[in-house]
Protein 1
Amino acid sequence: MRFVADLHIHSKYSRACSRDCDLEHLTWWARRKGISLVGTGDFTHPAWYDHLTSTLVEASPGLYRLRDDLDRDIDRTLPPSLAGAPVRFMLSVEISTIYKRGDRTRKVHHLVYVPDLASAARFNARLAKIGNLGSDGRPILGLDSRDLLEITLECGGYLVPAHVWTPWFAVLGSKSGFDAIEDCYADLAPHVFAIETGLSSDPDMNWRVSGLDRYRLVSNSDAHSPPVLGREATVFDTELDYYSVRSALETGDGFAGTLEFFPEEGKYHVDGHRKCGVRMEPEETLAHKGICPGCGKPLTVGVLSRVEELADRPHGARPAGAAGFTSLVPLPEIVSEIVGTGPKSKKVLTEIDKLTAALGPELVILQDVPVDDIAAHSPLLGEAVGRLRRGEVVRDPGYDGEYGVIRVFEPGELERRRSAFALFDYAAPAPSTVERPRPAPAVAPVADPVAAPAEHRGTSLLDGLDPEQRAAAEVAGGPLLIIAGPGTGKTRTLTHRIADLVTSRGVPPSQCLAITFTRRAAEEMAERLAALAPDAVDGLTIATFHSLGVLLLREHGAVFGLSPSFGVADPDRQVAVASTVVADEKEARDLVAAGDDRYKKALRAQDLVDFDDLVTLPLALLEGSPDLVAAYRDRWRWVSVDEYQDVDEQQYRLLRLLVPPDGNLTAIGDPDQAIYRFRGADVGFFLRFREDFPGARTVHLTRNYRSSSAVVTGALEVIAPSSLVPGRELRPMADHGSAPIGVHHASSEAAEAAFVARTIEQVLGGASFHALDSGRVVGDGTQGLGFSDFAVLYRTDRQSRALVEALTQSGLPFQKRSHDRLADRPGVARIAHDVAYAAGGTVLERVRAVAGEDHTAYELLKPLAAECGTDFERFHTALALGVEVDTWDPRADRISLLTLHASKGLEFPVVFIVGCEDGVLPMRWPGEDDPEAVDEERRLLFVGMTRAQRHLFLSHSAGRPRSPFLASLKAYEQWGDPQPRRKRKGTQLSLL
């Protein structure tokens, strides 16, 4: 059976798509066009998936059709020449992936096909864990193309790279694609057997690239409204079922070629710059070195130039066995040219109604109906179709998002022929007065930047450090205080110092103890030391204060009645234990909060401790045993403490017991980043270090390698009024451009969130065609950025609601993390309890098994579970000790939403800090007067600002005064109206 298929369309749930993109309208138009197989499009969208399940019934293996009652209603509105033709649907969806690979931002679109609704449901469940499927029928995911292909194969489907030459969003695109299909899909590339050539290229162009010979070249309409179905399509000569179509694409048997646009009609065929009205052929672009002569910015390099770049064959080459193609102009466009009105006008639609009723579907008229039969209805139309079949058309190519124009008649020809031919007495069209813009003369070439000389690397472990870092790392024994500003290489300095001790200075690794505050920071330190001193890392003790407490209690917990295998109770278990002492749950929670002796005794009876015990019990142990103090001081003669400004009183006392006043203690941190007073931290312990350790040396790290000059300067201005570092100095060393800090005043919290979403798209260079076509994004942004390079920071978790809504509406993937206890998050306690009884050899397998439909909790625990392997004790301990931000996965290509506290220790190329308002940042209540608290809030803003590498945006909204901290900021760029007006709500007019 020979039939036409259009397998790339969209539903009404995709952006910029017609409300008529439903199955009923698609079926009607498929019959009008002469198309037998249509893609459903958008099956990942929850509402559209529900529509598919309620409207379609199975018609043949892997294909569906409309329910009988709906199909009959459609046939009643069609003439006999069109009614009753079979129309089948294949489950399809277009997926947009944006991610980083090889230090470049990659933006690639893919078409995915599955054989049944159950497979679609499995596929949707997988992607729902990665991005928001409800925001757009064509979801945008921060997922590598190779990984999307893997998920597709695991769900029983196949994948076709979409419109492969489109500059902005395609596998071979000039802006963000690859030079070969194999480079994109890596080891899974052999599973790709077809590619979609797109509207701006045809098979003849693709045949010039020998690397594409192994792929079937398919074409589809990419329809955003039903009337444009079939403007490009694929022809098959197989049985009408999913598996036959797939087999034809894999083997070529039954693949009968394609129906094509003339490629010049595509909106990215040649090069140009739409804003300046500049359009160029490839040789002109080369002469201008790819630069627009109007504005000096890079041109959008079109498909023709990109094909020329990758081609290894001359024009006219055709691989053996390649299927043919037919180039067509849609029938409405031909009639539109003749009658002189738009292709969607009533005149055009009425005439096509008559033609299809008499002659059959549009594609049949264009290809098969004898010209004389067409001429009997309209001599001009007969002439036009004859020319079309001979390829005699006038081509005005598209560029930079502007569709080209294909005409059958020369300008003025219709007027001259009007006396001889008539088409229903329509007025002749007015001749076009639009002139094609011509490029200006070539400009002088721009010199390439001179590459910086490669850094000389010595042979010593410390040779790679800067002079300040090396001075700190080389200090001999005794107390050492390192004041390390943000981005100055704090962890690098500390790990190099430890590695140098054990590799060059003869210190046994077993004598080294390194303490930091989060599990994630401890793991990062261990990874760096494994690279610097691989033979020694296993002998080092690297811990948080709480995991150090676990270690001490495993060795000496018998003093408190604990066995070496004691457990750490999570919050639910704590309440359960307290409930054995009192009957009322509220009273039980009060016992836990107060640390009541009855509750503690009940914990010990069950061989348990709680989170607070992990510091208080080891402290009590050492304070009551001078012999143990001496033993641990002898065991760990070299102690290093990261983030020393964040220690609380009990941690401070524990350290004083572990290290004598003249001991080898290295404390590193920055008092201007002390932001945890609410947790009991006291920056005073940092400030009195030299009093506690009189012989201490002090080294300052002042070279910032993280942030741009503008960010460093602005952060110093903000912290200056209350800095705890006399003569605070921070020198920018990285070349991250000269973008100034942006300040935005929004009319509301929702408008502020919308600004964030809009600006992310602008910096990224557009996340969708709609962003480019709507003018919201006009350039290709800052190259090399993916979603994971963006962070939005806020003071309280409540502020994230508007951001979540705005990013969801924009279809941008994000992950939200806070500094809450991991065990307190919904679903975590249940999973932790059930893991012990689940089947599976690894922690990850068991977590996956017990998580069930709780995708949120599963995604939260997945990184930790994977790290723990088969160590279930480590998993349970980490759950009890960790905070949610410990599960933050920098490999996940999503925008990060974080509280300012949770952002500590992280860095991002682009940072937004929202809610810079008095009452939010600084957080304070009316009438409250606590200067020390306000100073800490200023330090919190300093921490947030110094997370940024290239771009920093500070925003605030109407309703509260601007944060007083921004008054210190001298150099910035105002984004938008400094005093925006709120939109007035509509008022109802009185009838009287």
Protein 2
Amino acid sequence: MQSAPQRHEYPAHWEADVVLRDGGTARIRPITVDDAERLVSFYEQVSDESKYYRFFAPYPRLSAKDVHRFTHHDFVDRVGLAATVGGEFIATVRYDRIGADGMAASAPADEAEVAFLVQDAHQGRGVASALLEHIAAVARERGIRRFAAEVLPANTKMIKVFTDAGYTQKRSFEDGVVHLEFGLEPTERSLAVQRAREQRAEAHSVGRLLAPGSVAVVGVGRAPGGVGRSVLGNLREAGFTGLLYAVNKAFPEDLKELDGVPAHRSVRDVAAPVDLAVLAVPAESVPEAVDECGEHGVQGLVVLSAGYAESGPDGRERQRRLVRQARAYGMRIIGPNAFGVINTSPRVRLNASLAPEMPRAGRIGLFAQSGAIGIALLSRLHRRGGGVTGVTGVSTFVSSGNRADVSGNDVLQYWYDDPDTDVALMYLESIGNPRKFTRLARRTAAAKPLVVVQGAGSAPQGHAVRATRLPHATVSALLRQAGVIRVDTITELVDAGLLLARQPLPPGPRVAILGNSESLGLLTYDACLSEGLRPLPPSDLTTEASAEDFHAALARALADETCDAVVVTAIPAIGERSPQDGELAQALRSAAAAAPAKPVLVVHVELGGLAAALSAAASTAPRAEGVARARAATENAPASQPAAVEAPEGTHLIPAYPAAERAVRALAEAVRYAQWRREAADPGKVPEYEDIDEKGAARLIGGLLARGQGLTLGAEETCELLGRYGIRTRRAIPAPTPDEAARAAKALGYPVALKATAPHLRHRADLGGVRLDLADEEQLRRAYGELTELFGKPEELRPVVQAMAPRGVDTVVRAVIDPAAGAVLSFGLAGAASQLLGDMAHRLVPVTDRDATSLVRSIRTAPLLFGWRGSTPVDTPALEELLLRVSRLVDDHPEVVAVTLEPAVVAPRGVTVLGASVRLAPPPARDDLGPRTLPAY
């Protein structure tokens, strides 16, 4: 072993699990002196060509000196990392710090030579790219700023690893060798490359779980019933297109088949490859099953077994061991305590779940952590009556249970470019990594709608992730900023999802309302107003309306340029001309087909047949012919069945809702999402301000932090730091005695304000701790006496004197750095609006000019800034500039972990900051800037 002076402590925080390009996993860790045998074994499996590329000469075996050199590191100037699968090396990378002469050196030398070696069997899996990300992060931590590498021209794969990484680099050719140099600071391109690789790898890893070529169900009982036997039956009933195997170590040796499926006592006994294993065995039997699967080369696991993190501390430790064990074999896990996975694609037809029926195939992706919620979602989508109904179905479904490994982030990566999914619906009990989820959600929402119900749960049990300190409402606001359609219930989740899956996005908020019930039309009108839509006066067709009347009215509404969407209301009617369900549905469908760019929704009352017919009817024939054919079909159909024509591929289905509020709420979400999509195309920019002194602020922060790990700045230091970013604060002079108050007022100039700054009185003008517009010394001394008489001695009040600011609206601006979500900028009106009602708006930093504009207008009390009830509008452009400057400060200097400006008075001209506080601390690590990793255990 190396002695203490020769090496640093083993850096356990460098250990990480990563997803490779093909969807498998590997573990990256530092190489130690205990790895000598592994290194030799690894090297023996590398081809002569790869060895030649690494050492520039034939190098058949490693000498004892080589093994010593490659396993003895000080973890500062000499570092080696290995990628392992099953505990064995599949690739290595090392760096050696060098000086300007290219020889071995120590700090402060900031350059290192880097070299890789990847086993031939694992080349092309993205191992070297992952190792480069991790060795670069290690080097940055150790003060290394540049890597140098020498590569033979014929080693094109390794040259591509370096050139594709996105770092700023220089390249030269000398003495038959390509010499590469590149800086290690992340660049916009290197982060984009890293995230694109992350998306492909994580999407592929989920794809291997959802589209396997073969499935083994482990824990299938011989008798009917039981979890394993049920899952096997569900796979068979769904018509799984791949190979199935039933596994149970208790099977008799002579049992070869069960329910027509090959039976085996162990996964090891299966002669062919197994892509996916579904584990339905007791928790204590899972480790043995995982070992068997890993040794057989299974690619992924769905663990239905319970008894893990949901059961307490012992279960959490059992879950950690499960994840570590599976990842050692390169397998990913859905679960444990999972409900299962479904893929309705005709190429797969996978129902590896406890759902007894395969849901209808469709374009909606579903993710739920809870099995019970998963059942409810599938049931609501499957039902044709009693709520939102129709034939829109599911593309893929994942119920992750404890989500020990595969999470909603992974599934989002898969759905992003899945051609079979148009809309994503997610029920999230918690968000373990808000920063990453927000980034992925923003990218996904730019391509397809993402609807989320977010619970108020904690981070997933067993995960070593940073918990967010942000309130639930703040996280919800940030999700909306990222384009997520945030709803509160699974009913709203399905309502919005079916509209988005069936209809085009509305081009605006103007809504036409028509139907055969005046009262239902008025209810719909009021619901539109409540949701912020702009409804047109309802058109009452009367209860005598025929299918032709509905067709004509809908056609007129859709042709109206002042209409962006149409809500049709329908109640049962009795009369000679009253349409049957199928006839009315056909009339609406044929009218809607003529204007496919505008969405149409139906509010129906006790018309289950209409709901089904709306979803299925699909004729695009001219009105008279289409209505006549629908009437004929209705007359010839059995009374109990809705008459309908199956919808051809690519046509829009009309969603039907049993209540006006539900239809309008879904439409309002679609309107807001469509607006977000339009604005996302031009997100704005982060302005540059010539008066910002970024370097001066950095020096000031460095000097202040040298005093300690975290501190709240004093008034003078706060003013100085904010001033470096062009944020001027109104000076407040302490006044411990009436005489000192008078001297302060004379220095500032009358009129002045006298304020008590004790914590229980700060920002509480309603308690009487503030006196404004004191015009002379007499008024000042009288106010001072009143304050001390009411609230106590001056040392308890902490009074200050401040020059009067122009009258305006008091606001509050805050910025905090959350360890999980990142830097967040918040804005609201000071006082009861923000403190009592929580009327605050939030944006992720850095904030763009468009973000600042929307932030000011997002609070419910925003009209007070724009001349409400005849008041004078205030200077919102100046307010937006203040927000942008605060955003720049915390973005440029992550050591600024909290800023509060309260109150910031916005006058008709300008903004005056009357109170400010700043807290400094070493910033939390930025996971999104580091190398790709899976959640740690």
Protein 3
Amino acid sequence: MSTYWQAALAAHWGIEADLTRLDGEYDLNFLARSEGQDYVLKVMRAGCEAEFVALQCEAFAHIAAKAPALPVPTVVKTSSGEAFARLVDAAGAARLVWLLTKCEGRVYAEMRPKTQSLLGDVGAKLGTMDRALADFTHPALARDFKWNLMQAAWIGEALDVIEPPQRRALLGGILAEYEAILPQLAALPQVAIHNDLNDYNILVSGSLQQPPHVTGLIDLGDLCASPRICDLAIACAYLVLDQEAPEQALAAAVAGYHAAYPLSGPELDLLWPLLRMRLAVSVVNSTLMAKDAPDDPYVVISQAPAWAFLEREVEEAGLLRARLRAACGLPVVEAAPRVMAWIESERGNFAPLFGEDLSAAPMGSLSVETSASPVNPFDLPLEEAAVIGTEYDIEGGIWLGYYNEPRLIYTAPFFRRGPWKASSRRTVHIAVDGFAAAQTKIYAPLEGRVHVVEYRPAHLDYGGVVILEHTTPAGDRFYTLYGHLNPEICERLTVGQTVAKGALLAHLGDKSQSGGWAPHVHFQLALTTEGMGGDWPGVADPDEMYLWGAVCPNPAALLNLPDAKTGYVTRDKAEVHHGRQAHFAPNLKLSYADPVMFLRGWKHHLFDEWGRPYLDAYNNVPHVGHAHPRIQAVAADQLKRMNSNTRYLHPAQIAFAEKITAKMPAGLEVCYFVNSGSEANELALRLARAATGGRDMITPDHGYHGNTTGAIDISAYKFNAKGGVGKPDWVELVDVADDYRGRYRRDDPMRAQHYAAEVGEAVARIAARGGKLAGFIAETFPSVGGQIIPPDGYLPAVYEHIRAAGGLCIADEVQTGLGRLGAYYFGFEQQGVEPDIVVLGKPIGNGHPIGVVVTRAAIAQAFAQGPEYFSTFGGSTLSCRIGAEVLDIVEDEGLMEAACVMGERLMSGLRALQGKYDVIGDVRGCGLFVGVDLVCDAQARTPASALAEYVKNRMRAHRILLGCEGPFDNILKIRPPLTIDEEGIDMILAKLDEVLGEAESLSA
């Protein structure tokens, strides 16, 4: 068959091409591959009317003329200049044949990730198409067929085929909603629309470096005349399927459409019932088809996503209408501008909420940036909730809490919006708080009717709450909410009761009456309650403030206050970034394509300026977790006393030294306290030289030991980097003992000895040039080298070479020490060696600047023959107490054991992913020191650097912090604080699975 039409293509279009059959329900479609251009040859079914083909050809031409940048196919005319040819097929039947250029890309249904930006792009491209088609006319647009949403009521007579009865009832309800809006729909202009922009008629391109974007809108086979909102509803019906957050997906697509082709509020209000009606038509139609083709399983399978969406719990229709309006920058209800104008006109005339002028009332901030409450941002116990904000208390006075303020005090499960601690959560306060003594009287600012009155005693809930409904002189309604009240209101007020302006409304509840909070009133304005009922959210997700800021604007006017007084202004990340660029050097780099700004931390989570939580799977410095209360307490306690240096005796210095040396092999008993790992490695270098009289050092390639001059000299990661100074003549490099991609691999049983032999060769080179060896320094497990676990026997053989040549062995344990490895307190224990010098760094201070060098007495004695050694803040009393506390916490909380258990869980999950994704070349690690080597080719082990960068940034988008390391930056580095739990490990694995699936899709 394809040969026949291949000849027809050459004869009538003059194009020589290879044809491949494409899917088609009624017609023959072929992909025609020609040199330099691909086409789609469409052979219409026998009996197809010429007017139908002409309609599509003219529509494509019209779109190209009106929106030349829009990615749609172009009709290729025949050699005689016709839009289509009238040909005869091999069986003698007449066929209409036409040719289109092929748009690049893959069908949307098969593309991942389906990001908010991609959804917005789909909406924008459809809006551009509809705007182009707005003045297109053709007699064939008036079509009577089942897919015209204006004629969708036909399913009413076919609902009997739907089983079970619950589903039939669901579709009946959708049909009733649709019939209710038909008069409004019929009043809208009937214009040309695509009418079937489903997920197989949208083409998308993207790569690891380029976000997915629309590259084609195809198939005008269902083109008809209908209101444009039907076109958007049809497209959105497919865009929301399989979305975790369909409401946000819908808003993104609608906002994109509106930006290209502005909609009205009344049009938007029709979208949701039309979307559901399209899916109802789809499932009824496929059920009818299944009756005709009972052996075709695809017919039933294709229904599954539609049923899953129709049966899932989604936002109430009224709130969804407000969401879509807000996403487009339109009033959430038609009356909203009038209500706000009236409130503004009355600013200054409302009765005082507390019975007194609040102009001089101070503001107190509970924001992420300014407040350290709560101690644990995931758990606010009653005793802490009861004193939140008491630092601002004024005896007998009133202070106010901000509107639009991101706070971490909302810790109850109902504030979280996903399964993980790092899932989105509601943090932004959308009311004004008034703090005063319990039982303080609250008055109605204006007349209202009681809409809701109830007592909600749950922990961190409203306690006593009243919602009043108000009506402006123009007849527009709005609402105010008063929370955390004495529940006596439930006895005194009834729904429907009128409360006069200035009348006593309630009393502030005490902590036993207010949901556990310190006494205050939560005062909130809402321009609609549609879809909310009586369960108003008083706090919003920062990523949904476009909605909740519009539904619940700043109520300052009702308090007779200026908006600027009560409106919190969150720190602008872009402004901070600009300041950093102005005051810091450009080689001080930020992580991630979209940098993050963190203001709080707790255990293995960090919080940005809006209170968004992130799982920290990268930072090893907070060894025992961010913001550990015991470290806070020790630091505060010591700073109340003194902070001095090692020129004076202090028991904290001895206690710290004894705790460290108790973990060391016998003989490692002398400690030097410094301020960083860099300073510690520099000191280790001096010790080795003093003890041996040598100067030369041997170190593995791509190692990193700090940023001081001496440390950089032994850090190939730095001196060989772009702009680096190169290797000093007294340094010899050897290969990293990488048995995955190094020269000696796991199939070589002597790989450890081969790598160690390079050290012997380096010793020989030093001797040959007349140098003298001082020692060997290495990260026990190279971290920047790629999270390498050296093969067993490597360091014993290395140390033998070094000691035979009179050198010392230095173990840089900054990355691996203090229990991170789970089964071992130090990395050198895993290798079965005893170093001469051990270096510890930042994790021992959990963020406080501490470094430690531990060595043998004889080495220390040799160093002491030189000038006095002193570091002003190295070994300060504060540092010693913090360091000792970190070591105690590791023991007391069983963090080394936890690292072993969590590391095994992580490694097991990663190996399962390795079996699923060929791009995972290697999974290696010990405890919570883990690397994932990403490759383009599993056999060649080609480093997948672009993939690693993609994964790192997409994991950040999923609120997980990872890093990339290795000579090619293709190793995912996972080294979380030791507090990480099962949930954290499982989130890493789940999201990494998702992101690798995205990458697979983008690379297909």
